[in-house]
Amino acid sequence: MTLENKLSGKNIIFFSVQTFNLEKEIKNKLEQLGAKVYYYDERPSNSNFTKGIIRLKRSVYQTKINNYYKSILNDTKDLTLDFLFVNRGEVVPAFFLSQFRELHPKCEFIFYTWDSFTNHVHPTTILSYFDRKLTFDPEDATKYKIDFRPLFYLDAFKNLQTDKIENDILFLGTAHSDRYRISTQIFNWADTQKKTMFCYYYMHGRLVYLYKRLFDVTFKEFDYKKLSFKSLRLVDIIKLYKKSNIILDINHPHQKGLTMRTFEAIGARKKLITTNKEIAKFPFYSKENVQIIERENVKLEEDFFKSNYINIDNDLYKKLSLEGWLYNIFVDSEEDFWNKCK
To answer: In whole angstroms, how far apart are CA 144 and each of 135, 138, 248, 339?
Structure first.
């Protein structure tokens, strides 16, 4: 069955936190494929205060969360819904899923997460409610006996036309763990090699920053002046990719799933420098396109900057797209193919 046949004329209620407008891109693609989508932010609010309090002390905000989901139950009780699709599951409460099932017994429940359960444990408490469960993290897939499916690139990155190169290296990412230390080492190396590097460190909010500054030793290294509390728009990211040569990816040290930066680089046909050794297990990996570096012993190869990008197989390129991802979410997880990469 094709993805379009699966989704055409279907009604989907879709939950996802707002993440660099990825939720809008997913919604738009589902609608292009013929579905009617009712989107809800997982959080009652997308304010920095709300994001901060949920991360730091969710119990304080639980009443607000519960009331928000009760209102969604009321809003959707008379709808005919074919799929409930939860992406990440950071705050979706169990009572909501239980009552939603009673109201919509024929609805198929689908769960996906692009975060590791070590970072957000709440999703593990609601997995049993879902008919289909997938994660981008290979270790979580094995531990919790759910399907493994890595991330995707958006259509906007497909065969991206490069402008005049201004940045030899581009780093975009949320400020956490050892990212600042590693990227600073690479920035200093680039400077000695007469190469240019652009870094953008995103922080969820000043409340989160203050908490991290007090209780996370890695944040004592971050230069506050270099942090941004405003997330980049997709159009801004695309502009940066167009004028950059190589993408730098620094995964969370406790997270083995490949990041969105990895797949954006594939979509844009850009070379990648990454700290994630797991990438070597994937069929799109090659030493010509990807340089793996050690977190504690950062060394870059100058020759890597001189060679050209080598295109990957076209069928694999399509599989790594947003549409390929949605096919695995809604139609067939292609478990045998992806398990080879674990």
So the answer is: 10, 10, 30, 14
pLDDT higher at 211 or 168: 168
CA 238 distance to own-chain centroid: 16
Q: How confident is the model at residue 60 (pLDDT cuts 50, 70, 90)?
A: low
Report the pLDDT averaged over residues 204-223: 70
Number of residues assigned to the chain: 342
Cα atoms in the Cβ-side hemisphere of radius 13 Å centred on 187: 12
What sign does the CA torsion over 84, 87, 88, 90 have? negative
**Domains assigned to the chain:** 3-151+332-339 (3.40.50.2300), 155-319 (3.40.50)
Q: Which residues contact 224 (CB under 8 A, 6 or more apart)?
A: 209
Burial 91-118 (b: 16+ CB within 10 A, else e): bbbeebbeebeeebeebbbbbbbbbbbe
The 3-state secondary structure of 149-207 reads: CCCCECHHHCCCCCCCCCEEEEEEEECCCCHHHHHHHHHHHHHHCCCCEEEEEECCCHH
Considering 23-37, 43-57, 60-74, the range whose residues carry the highest mean pLDDT is: 23-37
For 247, phi and psi rounded to 5 degrees? -100, 135
Match 């990211």 to its residue by tokens. Answer: 237
- Nearest-angstrom CA–CA distance, 18 and 21: 6
Helix (H) or strand (E) holding 16: strand 11-16
Which one-letter amino acid corresponds to residue 301? E
Output the CA angle 196-200-206, nearest 5 degrees: 150
Would you give the distance in Å from CA 290 to the centre of its chain? 20
Question: Is pLDDT of 187 > 80?
Answer: yes
